[in-house]
Design brief:
Blueprint: H1 12-17, H2 19-37, E1 46-59, E2 64-68, H3 71-84, E3 91-95, E4 101-106, H4 120-133, E5 139-142, E6 156-157, H5 184-197, E7 203-206, E8 239-242, H6 246-249, E9 254-259, H7 263-273, H8 277-283, E10 289-290, E11 293-294, H9 301-307, E12 333-334, H10 356-364, H11 369-378, H12 400-406, E13 410-411, E14 413-416, E15 427-430, H13 439-459, H14 467-477, H15 482-485, E16 487-491, H16 503-508, E17 520-524, H17 525-530, H18 538-547, H19 553-570, H20 577-586, H21 599-613, H22 635-661
Parallel strand pairs: 2-6, 12-13
Antiparallel strand pairs: 1-2, 1-4, 1-5, 1-9, 3-4, 7-8, 9-15, 10-11, 14-15, 16-17
Helix pairs in contact: 2-12, 4-13, 8-14, 10-11, 13-18, 13-19
Amino acid sequence: MGLLTLGHPFNWEETKKYAQFIREHGIEQFIHIYKKLKDRRNDCLKWGDEVEFLMVHFDHEKKKVYLVLKAHEVLPILMEPEHQNPNDCITLWRPEYADYMIEGTPGKPYGHLPVHFNMVEANMRLRRQQGQQLLGKDEYVLSTSNFPRNGCSDFTWPVHKPTPSTSASASLFFPDEVIFPDHPRFKTLTRNIRMRRTAKVAFNVPIFIDKNTPRPFIEDLSIYGHDSDPNESTAIEDHVYLDAMGLGMGCCCLQVTFQAQSIDEARFLYDQLTPLTPIMLALSASSPIWRGYLADIDCRWNVLCAMVDDRTPEERGIEPLKNQQFRLYKSRYSSVDCYISPDSAMYNDIEIAQDEDAFRKLTEHGIDHLLAQHIAHLFVRDTLTLFEEQLHLDDTQDTDHFENINSTNWQSMRFKPPPSNSDIGWRVEFRPTELQMTDFENAALVTFIVLLTRAIMTYNLNLLIPISNVDENMQSAQQRDAVLHQKFHFRKCLSTMKTPDTPCMASVQQSLLQENECEHRLMTINEIINGSNEFVGLLKVIQEYLSNMEVDADTRCTINQYLNLISKRAAGKLMTNASWMRHIVTNHSAYKHDSVVNDEITYDLLWKMKKISTGEEECPKVLPRMSSKTTLDISAAVEKENELEVKRSLMNHHNHEEKTDL
């Protein structure tokens, strides 16, 4: 969720007085970080995942399922081992926006050893078990991006009613009691976004039109107390109306963070992973149901963008600029707006707003144009939360003002400088992926993106396409059954002058471009992942990388199972979570083909997902046989790897002596 500072939060009127103060000091803090650490090299390549679970309560008698509001009860217990012994934790836990959400990560980052891939699923499974142990009868930890009836009547346990006239969000559907209560940031964010926007957030999700769906489909919001305020957005025809930050930020996701060896490598990774964000969004689609209705989208992304959109009418282009400085074309939750590595400049083909004073100051202190542009673009936004105790800081030692704005620009990738006085290096965060119902799937997606990252760096590949095409791809990725029916802009030739001449890399280079030929074309997800006569396919690149590594048998078996899932899903042989959920709903005996996903259907759907996630039931439409050999105990493989390292070192030393003798 970003920076979690404790203290007494200012209200919006107080916060906005300090907007320019925070911007100026945030830029000053980044300059100090940059100057201090720009030459830092040889940090270990590390990585880790974040899984946001939700907690539910099943009422088997009424056939109804609720979101359980008890994160404030279970998190202190889950976090106790970290407080007792922070250097020896297998898992770490953090709060998220809603009181039904808990975020878990590995206790320590994974490293360069191949065997670490064999730990991912086991650690995810442990996190699920740790959360589950603290829940009561008929309560379960689930992993899916969006609770199908979030915002419906009585959707939480205990039940709370919305109070639009007094709540932080002014929502017709989402009570304040659902917001995580033990940290002031979340409710303050909710209220301040609405106050800055001068209206509550709103988004209309296109409804899936089935044979009995009323035409036109129009929601009567008056039954919820909607007062038809002309300044507020309202429901539109054939759409489902959403009006609360919690209906977006209350979604769960799967994120991966990489620590690079240097700032240059971090910037390179940020750029190379950006074209992959819509591809992974489509592959992981798991959000086809909103407020109890089947929607005509499969992903959460645009909902999230709208539910934290703090832009004023002037910034949105509804009114001419008068009090605001910029016309802002996107929400602060959005896809990436610009590449940040110098070699990527030619692909920045969309106009972006930037704080000119910030840009000038950054460049005056030796920060190059591309990185200065990125930071100055982030800093056109106002701070949304500010704590009285954190106002006056030492800009040479603290980074809170920088992170205040950096961490509330929720883009599909995030560039993360090292924290103050830390041994943590320059990092990038991969943020688009939807959460899957099983640990196997989540581990497969994480493993795929990490392996691809390593292959890109090892072979010096280039995946860049114009940023405008990435934006277009992000919209395509959210369409219903995008894996089967959409095409995506993707680079035709991945090689560079530094790409080695191996058999696989030769096939990457087969489509070397003619002069003035377009570098990218439209491809299906299947072609991007599995390849074709005209494109090598990302899986082949990963397999080439693995073939040149010494990987123990168990880890290789696990990786192969994960890549098999990715391959079959891309080919349409296995369903995405979203497609499978649609299939279950539309074939349910209680479904009337009117787009309504009622309590009984939701209960049966989530109960089936619970059984699949715990291995009590198979799901051949979504999963291959889950025969990975994942384990938390990798000591034997590590010992073997260390022996191999010693042998390699001795051989290198011997070869060096022979050359010296010659």
